[in-house]
Amino acid sequence: MVFFRHRCGKIRLRSAYVDAALTVSVSELARTTPRHFSSSSSISPASGAVSSDDAAAAQRAQKDNSDWNSDGHSRFRRTDCGESGGLNAIGSVRDSGSEQEQDFGSVNVDEESEDEENVDNEEGDGSEDDSFPAGWGPFKNSSEGRYVDQRAEGMEGEYRHPLVRETCRLIQLHSTWDPKLESKLRHLLRSLKPRQVCAVLRSQQDERVALRFFYWADRQWRYRHDPIVYSTMLEILSKTKLCQGARRVLTIMGRRGIKRPPEVFRCVMLSYSRAGKVRDALRILTLMQKAGVDPDLSVCNTVIKVLIENERLEKAFKFMERMQIVGMMPDVITYNCLIKGLCDVHRVQDAVELIDMMPAKDCSPDKISYYTVMDFLCKDKRIQEVKDMMEKMVRYSKLVVDQVTYNHLIHVLSKHGHGDEALEFSRESERMGFRIDTVRASAIVHSFCKVGKMDKAKELVQEMFAKGCIPDVVTYTAVINGFCRVGKVDQAQKLLQQMYRHGLKPNTVTYTALLTGLCRNGNSLEAKKMIDVSEENWWVPNAITYGAVMHGLRRENKLSEACDVAREMMKKGFLPTPVDINLLLQSLCHEGRVDEAKKFMEECLNKGCAINVVNFTTVIHGFCRRDKLEAALSLLEDMYLSNKHPDVFTYTTLIDSLAKKGRIEEATELAVNMLKRGLLPTAATYRTVIHRYCELGRVEELLLLLEKMLLRQKCRTAYNQVIEKLCIFGNLEAAQNLLGKVLRTASKEDANTCHVLMQSYMSGGFALSAYIVACRMFRRNLIPDSKLCERLSKRLATEGKKEEADKLMLLFVERGCAVAQS
């Protein structure tokens, strides 16, 4: 049975017996006629043609099931990213909206309706095996399907093109989009060449904005993306986790008849891998099979890389074996990925054996192969084995141990804190005739400074001078920071002056290290003076510099000066973080300067700092500690006016302070208001409410409030806490009445609560009441504490209640308790 299907300009012929499809698209028919309008067209429409373009665009948008508003400005139907973003060939594995694509201006920029179709037809059924599809044989040797890099050299010039810069400027205004700006951008789009469109995409700092522009441009009339634009977009997405967008771009290419080289599939695979969707990434191979594209060696290497990065080393080796079976021989990149995977799981010896086996496979190891193993050996300080690998590299692989090799080893050893071993390799390289350079020496100096070996670091700096290798700013900064960390700030200041004598200009990092050392030594005022004269010394403090001095003054309890530094910091355009602000607020409140803390917080809020609910809660807590409840409640209202909604900790602080002052009605009203706002009480909230209400003996109000709180957030030990607090405050009758709520669960916590009540009864001289509690515990299959019951039995016998004492012991005997029997 044969039937026809027509959808979005495509005619598909399907047969129930023949698994084939013939697709005739509008884009294919357009290739047979002259292309008057393309992405590289330089024809600029006249002013009178703009309206006709908009009208034609409206007609095309209606054809694409798009919506239009009353002013003629296009608003395309929004499609959720999770509808077609996953790989349907893998069953139920789909993305769950990890990419929330937003409007590009007033236009939604998802792909056309024809691209929203389910992709099962293109992918087929996925295999569970993380390897090549079972039906694939040897790869073709023809050049068909191979990726040809269409990016011409000299792309740097395109970024500076006026059209590219103006387009990027308009894209940045997407938050204030209107029809006029869209029309202008549409006009620019038709004048852009494909390479310039690529430059626009690469110029976007946010890849999601680039993707939205790509979708928006693809919907415009008289414009179609060039294949190089698709490849560029996929290359950009391959460096992100936007796997759904990459999958959609790949789908659009297939449905428009654009040739898809292996490279574009590799980009999608990398995007899925970055998003943590390993199975989706590997099933791109199945998608390539359905598309009739043979993977090249770079795709296979990417598969191995994905497997290794996701800790599937054994499958990576199986995949390499499968490569060889189908006729694709691994290269040195393939082996290097496997070597890296073996080293990651600490199988360094297996990695060495793999290197030794490579020549037999007609693949000689390169320096990266040896460097990978030597890096892990250096990390574990296995110096002799590193030297053995260097000897192998020369003897068997005929590779030269040059200065790059020594520099690499020195940097790795220095990075892991093995400065002495790094210095030994540096000496060896000098004996072989390689000169010491500043970068290598700075790495060793920094390694010594990190562990506090300042004598060796200083000695190495002097040695650099003697050998004609003048230390640079980085070297001096490392030594200055090292001296400051060990408390020798005077030595750091001498080095700073020495830098000036040698013609080196300290930078912001150098001064920040010195100022941090001064603040640690209690000389924060001196550090503040250095900031004040920074312009005279031709350096500019940054946010880290101001923060170090501000917290140094705070630790020295110079809070006014610390606030002044924060104000100067905001004046220079550096906004302190909410954590920095909160530390200052806590210090001010601790000193009783709550009004100053409130004023400082308001200043930060007016300057645009990200004041959050924690900052408000800190000041509210300060007011509550000073018994200024009216000011605290007023600040709570200010939070709502500032659109900073209080959290459960804010309410708990106020409830505790109100109840402490006996204002139970207000505390109850505040707690109910907290529950109405959807805030769930925490364990601290329960402890606070129970303590304050039991302290005042307001048991009935407490029980009513607890019922409302427990409906919103369960707390299994709430009534246990109530009974224990009532026992502490001597309200034993109310505690006895609540015992039934505790004995419903018969847990260990319930037994402890009963013990507290029994001890309270015994301390008050009510041994019979304690006996009743013990009997109720036995009826709930809870065994009371044997020592406590022995004391209770003696107390009962002393008070003449011998029958109850004997019965209590008999209950222990019936439960088989040996201590009670004796």
Detailed description of the structure:
Strand 4 and strand 5 (74-75) form a beta hairpin. The chain is mainly α. Helix 5 packs antiparallel against helix 6 (179-191). Helix content is 62%, strand content 2%. Among the domains are: 298-388, Tetratricopeptide repeat domain (Serine Threonine Protein Phosphatase 5, Tetratricopeptide repeat), CATH 1.25.40.10; 402-491, Tetratricopeptide repeat domain (Serine Threonine Protein Phosphatase 5, Tetratricopeptide repeat), CATH 1.25.40.10; 507-569, no CATH class; 743-822, Serine Threonine Protein Phosphatase 5, Tetratricopeptide repeat. The chain is extended, with a radius of gyration of 37 Å.
Give the strand tally: 5
Q: What is the CATH homologous superfamily assignment of the domain at 298-388?
A: Tetratricopeptide repeat domain
Highest CATH level, the class of the domain at 298-388:
Mainly Alpha
Instruction: Please state the oligomeric state of the protein chains shown.
Output: single chain
Query: Approximately how much helix is present in the residues?
Result: 55-70%
- Mean model confidence by pLDDT: 80
Would you identify the regions where 5 or more consecutive residues have pLDDT less than 50? 1-153, 818-822
Strand order of the largest sheet: 1-2-3
Strand content: under 5%
Largest sheet: 3 strands, antiparallel
Which fold does the CATH topology of the domain at 298-388 refer to? Answer: Serine Threonine Protein Phosphatase 5, Tetratricopeptide repeat
Distance between the termini: 93 Å
Structural class of the secondary structure composition?
A: mainly alpha
Helix run count: 45
Could you tell me the radius of gyration in angstroms?
A: 37 Å
- The global form is extended
Second-tier CATH architecture of the domain at 298-388: Alpha Horseshoe
